[in-house]
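User: Could you go from structure to sequence for me? I need the amino acid at each position, not a summary. Structure tokens:
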């Protein structure tokens, strides 16, 4: 029983990371029907920017808590600006083109960003200063590390904040209106171009936060670290219902839980396989996902 509880905690932790990345996929798809395959690179860029800022602030003698908060905020802002630039350069000029053209542009931008990280940061892993997240709470054989507590807390805060933004603010109302009908939203004074850029920025900021937390959790980052988590997060978005915010959250937690349970009870070598088996099954039996695709009251 204690082993199951430990795996449950691990699954919630990993699922929170996948949920944050999946939200970026589902928000962009919901508003412009684009699968942004470059989204995983914002996750990796966030991980690298996080280690740079945390290392520098720690060297200046900044207390660990303030160091983490500042690094998280600055990294999310950096990746939000990066995503806005990518949207304007790679996607906006192709907005009236075919979906295939935009998809190829997304794949090209993914390769460009990944190689940019490789050239600027090197091909070797870069270690995080893990001393700021050591320790945890122990309940018998169950351990709830401070890093896991941090990931769960930050994930919960960001998910609540996103829901408040989308469903409780005028900006969120503009996002949902643009997603439903760009022409009509423009007629009532909504700048769709600005709203689309903002959607990219918000999604990239969430992915950046996930990148920092993964770096702290596993102790290092790598230039190509965004590919596999990005694909799994995309699977989570499809599992929950692509374009559906609630579905992306649910899908992320399901994928994380399945991966951890499969690694713990079956084999860690095949943990990735089970996540994609679930994706294939959902696409076959429920093509619109668990929550349904583009549900009006939850669509971005």
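Assistant: Here is the amino acid at each position, in order:
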């Amino acid at each position: 029983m204690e082993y199951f509880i430990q795996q449950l905690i691990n699954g919630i932790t990993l699922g929170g990371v996948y949920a944050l990345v999946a939200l970026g996929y589902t928000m962009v798809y919901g508003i412009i029907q684009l699968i942004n395959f470059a989204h995983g690179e914002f996750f990796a860029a966030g991980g690298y920017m996080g280690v740079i800022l945390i290392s520098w602030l720690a060297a200046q003698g900044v207390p660990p808590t303030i160091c983490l908060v500042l690094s998280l905020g600055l990294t999310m802002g950096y990746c939000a600006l990066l995503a806005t630039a990518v949207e304007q350069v790679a996607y906006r000029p192709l907005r009236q083109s075919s979906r295939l053209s935009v998809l190829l542009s997304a794949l090209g931008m993914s390769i460009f960003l990944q190689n940019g990280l490789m050239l600027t940061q090197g091909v070797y892993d870069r270690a995080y200063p893990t001393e700021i997240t050591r320790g945890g709470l122990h309940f018998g054989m169950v351990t709830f590390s401070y890093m896991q507590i941090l990931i769960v807390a930050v994930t919960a805060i960001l998910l609540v904040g996103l829901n408040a933004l989308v469903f409780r603010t005028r900006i969120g109302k503009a996002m949902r209106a643009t997603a439903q009908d760009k022409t009509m939203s423009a007629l009532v004074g909504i700048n769709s171009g600005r709203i689309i850029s903002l959607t990219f920025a918000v999604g990239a900021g969430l992915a950046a936060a996930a990148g920092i937390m993964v770096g702290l959790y596993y102790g290092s980052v790598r230039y190509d670290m965004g590919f596999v988590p990005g694909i799994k997060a995309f699977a989570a978005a499809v599992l929950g219902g692509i374009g559906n915010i609630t579905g992306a959250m649910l899908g992320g937690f399901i994928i994380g839980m399945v991966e951890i349970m499969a690694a713990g009870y079956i084999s860690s070598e095949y943990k990735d396989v089970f996540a994609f088996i679930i994706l294939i099954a959902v696409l076959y039996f429920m093509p619109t996902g668990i929550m349904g695709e583009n549900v009006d009251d939850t669509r971005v």
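One structural detail worth keeping in mind: The first strand starts at residue 126 and ends at 127.
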